[in-house]
Structures are given as structure tokens and as C-alpha cells.
Design brief:
The longest helix has 17 residues. The chain is built from 16 helices and 18 strands. A hairpin with a 2-residue loop joins strand 9 and strand 10. The protein has 2 domains: about 260 residues, Rossmann fold (3-Layer(aba) Sandwich), CATH 3.40.50; about 180 residues, Glycogen Phosphorylase B (Rossmann fold, 3-Layer(aba) Sandwich), CATH 3.40.50. Helix content is about 35%, strand content about 20%. The model has no long low-confidence stretch (mean pLDDT about 95). The protein binds alpha-D-glucopyranose. Alpha-D-glucopyranose binds next to helix 1.
């Protein structure tokens, strides 16, 4: 079976968040299960595209309303990724040094139209078109209702929702950019008076998945306005837990680390990485090290970080290191915290992230919304105990140490008091005998795609029959 994943991000080509990690890993695991999975994404102007060779496999024009744009489909020349990668090159719209901006309607519409125009010309068509998030959400609608794509109508479409907060809204006045369709079907594009790409995908895709079972249930109650729609479509919706790429995230072979380690050498291995981190960021290596990695936004609980960190640092003998960027106000407040047992790296650095998972003792994830969350899985793999709010995928993956078979720290709710108590609980745990034993245990938990990739295969098969 041939699967075409269509996405705005894919690791290692372009990554803003977890979407990239999923799209860069799932195809490899699907291949292990006998599928042929490829990825199509925009051709951005970044280090990856500049330092790799691509060959042109298709060359044409798309119409966006009354405007015409030249586009090429480029295929990555070598097979370093473990799957075929196609990039849509529209120099005027997509060749940017960023993935997202405030003016994305035209960019992603052009990407979707060019993708479908190319698929239309393929002699061997994909068996499944798998779209990810709202940036590719109009594809199921266009395949079913745009006249020019009528021959693609019978190819099943799957939508995976990685984050339902962002929905790709735009006014009906821009509806003319979508290749012509029967006006009667306009309602399928609409939600609450605007064109809503995610809503259109939920209505039109043959099947809808979210990235954890709990998030699926949560969306029916809170989905930034789409609750009723998800309720209505719940028969075709399913939560499938994400996995992680077991090869990219492997402390035994990870070239980014200062020292590699396995379950048997976890104590000395983590110590070497922690030593480097503490030296680099002026922290005390003897104290338990807590880290946060991610975007500094409300969904991640980041607005509370300045208060949480100040309180936790006063009440416990710990160090905290944060990697990420986001809301200016939070960044400014964090910059004002004295750099004593505390430091930040504002921005993103993949190598530093790997060393942090390896060198830290605890990972903080006080998310208010977390569709799946991959960081808690990376952290387990590297022997770092996650401290999480019981929400979405975090609830599905982490069990509190006080419960049977527990191995992490779980708090119920995101308040200053709840998060700082969890940090104190973790600090006490750090000095218990059980702590070191638990590190070996968490490194053995298999949250790789080995477990979840098969669930997608079953879903695809059910759509083909
Ligand atoms: C989004 C979600 C995150 C999820 C990731 C991959 O970034 O916020 O929870 O793990 O997508 O599906």
C-alpha cells in the first residue's frame, strides 16, 4: 500500500514542533510494516534544502484564483531519510526561511493545490492521502468536490489532528482561490461564518485521528469551537498514540551527546552530560537538575514559569535550565530571574535539547493542552523522570510513582501551588534509593512507533475495503 503524507513540517528538513518529528518518523516505521510511505512538504529556504541535492520530477503552473504561479516538485536525491521526500517549490510563496507566518492562507493553499495537481498526473496514485493539521486540511474537500480533482475522489483520505487550537481560518471572500467546486458544497468549508480548513478536513476526510486517545475525548469538550463537530463526526474519529523515533533518540548511539550510555551505564553516562551542561550554564552539578524544553506559550503553562521557578528555587536546593522561546512577556520575566541555579537558552537548538534530556534529572511539562507530547517520551528514553500535568497524551503515557507500576510524577492541574509541590516531591524522590533503580526502568519503556504504527496500518486497510 502506498501512503502519501502531506505536511508543513518534517524532521530533519523543517521543524517547528512535534508535528515534524511525527512526520519524519512514522513513514520509516510504516515501511518496516510493508507500506511504501512518502512525504510531500513545501520547499523552504533552510540549511537542509541548501545542503542537499534534489531532482525535479514535475514542473508546471498552478492557478490561485486569477493568479498563476510556477511550481516544481523536487525529490530528495539520496535516500538518507528512509523514505521518499518530495518538496513543492513555489519560489514566490514557499521558499522562505520560516515555516509559518501571519499570512499563510495563500501559501498553504498553493502548496495543497500544487500537491494535488501533481498527484493528478502521477501514473501510479497513492492508495491513501494522509494529511496533517490544518495546513493540509483542504485537501480532502478538494479531492471530493473540486471538479478538476474528480479522478482522485476514490482515494481515501486520513486527517491527523496534532493540534486543534490552530484551524486555518480565512474569509469566504477568498473562497475563489480554491479550484472551482459546486457552490452547494460551500457549507462543508464553513464553520461559524468563515472558511475553516480544519473543520473542512474533519467533515470531508474519510477518517480522522488525533495523537492520543485522551486528546480525542478532550476535544469533544474543548476544541476551540469545534466541539460539536467532533461529537457529530465521532464515529470516524480515533485516538492513536504517537511514538518516537527509536533510532534518532537513542542514548547509546546519539552523536550529539558528550557521552553515550545504556541502561547499565546510565548513572555515569548521565553524570558526564550533566557535568557539561552545568559548566556551560553555570549550574551546580550536585543539585537535581530540572529542565523545560519547548515553546513558551500558555498551552505549555509557560506564563506561570517565572513564578514557579522563583518559588521552587527558594523552597528547594535545585537547578533549573530552560530551552525555548515564545511570548515576549514570559521571555522578559525569565530574563529578570537571577542566574543563580537557573539559566535559559532562548531559541531552539536540537543538539542542546538532546544533551539536556541526557544530562537532566527531571523534565517539567506542566501543559494545559498536550495532544500527545513527545518530550516526555524522549525524556524516558534518556533516563530523565518526567513531571507532567494529567492531560492529553501526558495522561496516557505517564503513571505517578505513588501508583502501582508508577515511574513519573503526575500533578492534576496547572497552578503555582500544584507545580511547585510536584517539584518538591521530585526533589525528595531524587534522594531516595528507588530513584536510581527507576532510571533503568524508564529507559526500558517502549514508546517507539513500534507500538502505534500498526494502528495506522489497520486504519488504512479498513478504508481500502
Ligand atoms: C503538536 C502537539 C503535541 C504533539 C505533536 C505531535 O505539537 O502540541 O502534543 O506531540 O503535535 O503530534
Amino acid at each position: 500500500m502506498k501512503i502519501l503524507h502531506i505536511s508543513a513540517e518534517c524532521f530533519p528538513i523543517a521543524k517547528v514542533g512535534g508535528l515534524a518529528d511525527v512526520v519524519g518518523a512514522l513513514p520509516k516505521y510504516q515501511k518496516n510494516l510493508g507500506l511504501t510511505s512518502s512525504v510531500v512538504m513545501p520547499y523552504y529556504n533552510n540549511t537542509f534544502t541548501q545542503s542537499n541535492t534534489f531532482e525535479t520530477v514535475y514542473n508546471h503552473y498552478i492557478a490561485l484564483g486569477h493568479e498563476y504561479y510556477h511550481f516544481k516538485v523536487l525529490k530528495l536525491s539520496n535516500n538518507q531519510l528512509g523514505f521518499d521526500l518530495f518538496c513543492i517549490d513555489i519560489p514566490d510563496l514557499l521558499y522562505t526561511d520560516f515555516v509559518y507566518s501571519n499570512e499563510d492562507t495563500k501559501r498553504f493553499l498553493a502548496f495543497q493545490i500544487a500537491t494535488l495537481d501533481w498527484v493528478l498526473k502521477l501514473t501510479v496514485k497513492p492508495d491513501i492521502m494522509h494529511v496533517h493539521d490544518h495546513h493540509t486540511g483542504l485537501i480532502p474537500f478538494m479531492m471530493s468536490y473540486s471538479f478538476k480533482y474528480a479522478t482522485l475522489k476514490n482515494i481515501p483520505t486520513v486527517l491527523t489532528i496534532h493540534n486543534a487550537q490552530y484551524q486555518g481560518w480565512f474569509p469566504h471572500a477568498h473562497g475563489g482561490l480554491i479550484p472551482p467546486f459546486n457552490y452547494e458544497n460551500t457549507g462543508l468549508l464553513d464553520w461559524d461564518g468563515s472558511i475553516n480548513s480544519l473543520a473542512a478536513a474533519i467533515k470531508c476526510a474519510w477518517s480522522v485521528t488525533t495523537v492520543s486517545p485522551t486528546y480525542m475525548e478532550e476535544l469533544k469538550l474543548k476544541a476551540n469551537g469545534l466541539e460539536a463537530l467532533l461529537h457529530h463526526e465521532s464515529k470516524k474519529c480515533k485516538g492513536i498514540l504517537n511514538g518516537i523515533d527509536w533510532n534518532v533518540w537513542n542514548p547509546e548511539t546519539d552523536e550529539r551527546l558528550l557521552k553515550n550510555y545504556s541502561k547499565t551505564t546510565v548513572i555515569s553516562g548521565k553524570k558526564a552530560n550533566k557535568k557539561w551542561l552545568c559548566k556551560e550554564f553555570n549550574l551546580d552539578v550536585e543539585k537535581p537538575l530540572f529542565i523545560f524544553i519547548g515553546r513558551l506559550v500558555g498551552e505549555k503553562g509557560a506564563d506561570l514559569f517565572p513564578k514557579i521557578f522563583k518559588k521552587a528555587l527558594t523552597e528547594n536546593k535545585i537547578s533549573i535550565l530552560l530551552l525555548g522561546s515564545g511570548h515576549t512577556e514570559t521571555e522578559t520575566e525569565l530574563a529578570a530571574i537571577p542566574k543563580e541555579n537557573f539559566n535559559t537558552f532562548i531559541g531552539y537548538d536540537e543538539k542542546l535539547a538532546h544533551i539536556m534530556y541526557a544530562g537532566a534529572d527531571f523534565l517539567l511539562m506542566p501543559s494545559r493542552v498536550e495532544p500527545c507530547g513527545l518530550n516526555q517520551m524522549y525524556s524516558l528514553r534518556y533516563g530523565t523522570v518526567p513531571i507532567v500535568n494529567a492531560i492529553g497524551g501526558l495522561k496516557d503515557t505517564i503513571i505517578d510513582i505513588e501508583k502501582t507500576a508508577g515511574f513519573g510524577i503526575v500533578h492534576d492541574g496547572v497552578t503555582l501551588g500544584k507545580v511547585t509541590s510536584a517539584i518538591t516531591k521530585a526533589t525528595n524522590y531524587y534522594y531516595e534509593k528507588e530513584f536510581k533503580k527507576n532510571l533503568k526502568k524508564i529507559m526500558s519503556i517502549d514508546y517507539s512507533w513500534n507500538n502505534s504504527a500498526a494502528a495506522y496500518v489497520h486504519l488504512y486497510e479498513s478504508l481500502k475495503h
